[in-house]
Amino acid sequence: MSFSEIFLGILEGLDVTLTVTAFGLLFAIPFALVAGVAQQFLTGWKRAPVTAIIEFWRSTPILVLMFMFYYTLPVAGVYLNATTVAAMTLGLHIGAYGSQSVRAALQALDRGQVEAGLAIGLTRWQVLLTIELPQMAVAMLPTFVNQFIQLVKGTALVALITMTDMTARAKELSQLTFDPPAIYGALMLAYFLLLYPATVLGRHLERVVGRRSGRLNGGRAGDV
Amino acid sequence: MDQTAISINKLNKWYGDFHVLKDIDLQVATGEQVVICGPSGSGKSTLIRCVNRLEAYQDGHIEVMGQEETNLPRLRRQVGMVFQQFNLFPHLTVLRNCTLAMTRALRMDQAEAEETALRMLERVRIREQALKFPTQLSGGQQQRVAIARALCMSPKAMLFDEPTSALDPEMIKEVLDVMADLAQDGMTMICVTHEMGFARQVADRIVFMDAGQVVEVAPPDSFFANPQNLRTRTFLEQIL
Ligand SMILES: Nc1ncnc2c1ncn2[C@@H]1O[C@H](COP(=O)(O)OP(=O)(O)OP(=O)(O)O)[C@@H](O)[C@H]1O
Ligand SMILES: [Mg+2]
Mind giving me the DSSP string for chain A? Predict the structure, then answer.
């Protein structure tokens, strides 16, 4: 098998990689937002369950989570298909990390912003939605791209719960032809081509956001 | 008829063990302008932040327009506040900074809110900057937008917390002029400031605070010419 045949063979798994990534985002983004905001806003004992849930998803290895939900839930009569399990475990794992960025971004916002919002008669909830979250979203874009990259890389594990993504395709090909350097070289190339644009975008956003916040924090005298 | 706009009665506040406001009594009449001054840490900011309840207090009462409103957003729509650091929303244009609370809190429609906002921006002489973002404006311009943003809620009274302290000297006057206009129009104001020229010109009464207490209250003439309290005299000697 030539390198290009191997490469094309691997790309047959691209749709699975992309599907798991896309559905993974559907779990990751809402979870990161809700958990991060909840952890920031709740106090005392109400915060404990949120922290526990975040820690559960963050501290358990993804592979263990996948096995857990794919192989042990059926014992309890719950059947989830492999795509759902993969998207959920990867998404919530990455989302749990994301929640900590959300929280950090909320804490980093100038307290004066919240006070100004309250002082013109907005409710705390309106302040969150119209003042804090929009500013935070911009500040968080670079982090978001990084976590997206982690998610895509995490999809390489789905082969272990029977899905045929790019990594699984590589393993299949290695049984047809014994050429590990070509096969895994092609696999790396595939991930690189998929992720390189994201890393470039991430770096670009970091620069743009950095410049913006530099300006916000008062380059000009009297701007403050 | 001299209706009381803001009435502060036996107000006490603690931060932990620290007694930051001690038995404060202060009545501000409708249309009156009161300037608060005093050394750093005397509790000036804390006092006016209690009025719109950005700070909670443990003891005493504050009535605005005759009632102690417990719905905080509603209270805060009656009492506008301008901060030392402007605190404009950097992700919104000047116009949106002004319309935000009208459309969200008052549920006004966008067109009506914009019309009000432009009128208020006109009033602070900055209407032509309506579509810029705050960071594109000078400090003095930003502070005038902050005043317009507060005015948009048609407040019954305005609180100012050292509105010119973060400004370059050449921008102080444009902000003070706008505030003097407001006073002229009969806006009830409590203003924490060390701009004694402004106090002399605009204030009906000057309140001197020290160590969490109101030490002296007097009209500007007698406050400057003939301060009664030793602490007031020491303070005035230092800043004049
Ligand atoms: N959140 C807080 N926790 C504890 N102490 C506080 C807090 N905020 C203010 N203080 C203290 O309360 C006192 C009064 O503060 P305040 O900001 O009201 O003073 P101020 O008169 O406005 O001073 P300045 O002229 O410096 O603005 C100060 O001693 C300050 O250190
Ligand atoms: Mg202060």
Answer: --HHHHHHHHHTTHHHHHHHHHHHHHHHHHHHHHHHHHHHH--GGGHHHHHHHHHHHHHS-HHHHHHIIIIIGGGGT----HHHHHHHHHHHHHHHHHHHHHHHHHHHS-HHHHHHHHHTT--HHHHIIIIIHHHHHHHHHHHHHHHHHHHHHHGGGGGGGT---HHHHHHHHHHHS--HHHHHHHHHHHHHHHHHHHHHHHHHHHHHHHHHHHHHTTSSTTT-
